[in-house]
Amino acid sequence: MAAAVELEGVNVTFGDFVAVRQANLTIEPGEFFSFLGPSGCGKTTLLRTISGFIEPTHGSVRIGGQDMKGIGPNRRPTALIFQNLALFPMMSVAENIGYGLRVRGVPRHERDEKVKNLLIQVALTEHGHKRVAELSGGQKQRVAIARALAVEPKVLLLDEPLSALDLKLRQHMRTELRAIQKKVGITFIYITHDQGEALTMSDRIAVMNAGVIEQVGDGRAVYAEPRTPFVAAFVGENNQIRGRITQVADGFATLETPLGLLKGRNPVGLGVGEEALLFVRPEALRLGHDGQASGSGFEAETLDVAYEGSVTHVTLRVRTGQKITATLGAGSALPAPGEMLCLGFAPQDGLLLKRPERA
Amino acid sequence: MSGIGGLTLTIGLPLIAALVLAALSAYERRTGTATGPGFFQRNGLAIGLYLVVAVGFWAFFIILLPQLAMVDMSFRPKLPPAQMGGPKDLYTLENYRYFLFGSTTSTAEWNWIHIKAFFLTIGVSVVITAFNFVICYPLAFHMAQSATLARLRLLLLLLIIPYWVNEILRAFAFRVLLSSGGIINQLLMGSGLTSEPFDFLAADIGLYMGLSYAYLLMMIFPLYNAIESLDRNQIEAARDLGAPWWHIHAFIVMPHSKPGIASGCTLVFMLTAGALAAPLVLGGPRTLWFTPIVYDRFYQAFNWPQGAAYALILLVTCIVFVLVVLRAFRLSLGEITR
Description:
The complex is a heterodimer.
Chain A: E1 5-14, E2 17-27, E3 32-36, H1 43-51, E4 58-63, E5 66-67, E6 78-81, H2 93-103, H3 108-121, H4 137-150, E7 155-159, H5 167-184, E8 187-192, H6 195-201, E9 204-209, E10 212-217, H7 219-224, H8 229-234, E11 239-249, E12 252-257, E13 260-265, E14 275-280, E15 286-287, E16 296-307, E17 312-318, E18 323-328, E19 340-345, E20 350-354
Parallel strand pairs in A: 3-8, 3-9, 6-7, 7-8
Antiparallel strand pairs in A: 1-2, 1-4, 4-5, 9-10, 11-12, 11-14, 12-13, 14-20, 15-19, 16-17, 16-19, 17-18
Chain B: H1 2-31, H2 39-43, H3 45-74, H4 94-101, H5 112-146, H6 149-160, H7 167-178, H8 183-190, H9 205-214, H10 216-228, H11 232-240, H12 245-256, H13 258-273, H14 277-282, H15 290-299, H16 304-328
């Protein structure tokens, strides 16, 4: 079976500005695939390239094994859900959903039948005759999904469609989107800057930064095994400490930092003398760890303690003035602001990555 | 006596209307139908007074009074000045009768010359309005949705600058251009396409060109405004769902721009039907347009009451026609001002 979407050496430039650089990617049929990155990272450009609104400057886009060069968005087997949904305000809900079928010349009774089924599928049976403006945010969302599904696309493209909703509805829609995707079984390509959305919904995630796909993997891989400092810092909270490698052994390395010698995993194979960044997740930091027996440790002064019930976020300041965050579990003893603490972490919880030259 | 009566009516009617409206507003305020801060509370006394006086003056002296005077005059007989207000100055339908049946001494059953000119004017105005729409819609769409800012500015300048030239001058320029010795005929003959000059003016091509060009901007700008407010994503969404370009225009862009289309078409239709310069300057010898007839009633026949009646017939017909068309397209008057 041909891949749903293949990108091969895709470059998109606008004048001097490179929006997407050398994107190579294969998205499988039936996959829920997310592009995650900050605004301006090129993820929307990439989505528009797949949907056909932008032709790549170099490289090719294949959908279902077929090269899409010169094929306009109206003739691609994709359907796009816009950030603002772009529902047609002068049409009723049912007319919106049936629009794609109408332009395809599907006869009226067949169209009505299909629209009815879609209305059931998105739980809007009672609302077919309504104007779009009469619906709530979540209902509009579902109309947009139904309108896109009506044309039976091979690939559904979603451009941050949840960003306009309030938090609760957003979380609810995550589950709903995932359920719809499971039910219809087509490929979903989802664009977001919200790592929570990407992690909860996706089979795989591509993390993008400045036009470059930095890492592709499932949620666990991009969170626990980031391959670049950008991915480590962007996906989830992370503390980073600069230093120079002094010792390398068995997949681990020791970093010389202003806070002392710190040990962590060395997955990218850094050598002695190289500049590196050490990443430690807030939840991996332990208070009162002596640091010598099982891992690394350093001293820090407590600045702020934010108790949230299940967890407590502690902000600390180390000797260099840098701020560090530690997240403590429910049972932990809480430090008082101003208290000097010893912070430690196990070597397998420290991650060493090459420091980018510009940083 | 009836002269005084006319004056009373002309001035009295609007005053009575204003008083009734003021009383109605006071009544609503007392009964609690109208709520919120009053007009003067919202605007302050000084600005509120200014608005009332300025708008009142404008509406009354500039719009209502002349029109009502015209209505009054149209129902009066043509009399030498000495007899005006005299015993012969009675209200009559004579001027309207003349439009339909012509002079009492005429043998023809109907006043065909004037009636034909009238319907020709209405019919051709409709055609020119449609033609204007066809020309302006693509341009307005390009300006509103796809032109870069620099291109938009250039297009706006190119559209506006020609209108700095006076309407009559523009009409004469068309006449010079299209005359038998004009540059277009010279080109046609020079290229061997025709051996004799083509009489564009006699064929009314000059008239239609002049009329189409005269109110182009009145079509472009409402269309541009309406299309500009359309979310670009709507167009892309339709395209993404598989719509060909004509379908997007017919079912997405035009329904959205309906108020602008209506407003542009109304303006162009009204102005074309009432245009005087182009028909006077460019009208062919065989074509009788209605506005020059009205003009002639005033200045050739010196029959002002009849001219007033003719002008009113045109005005009322146009208004009714526009309202009927708006109704047919399910648009309210309020919407075309959006």
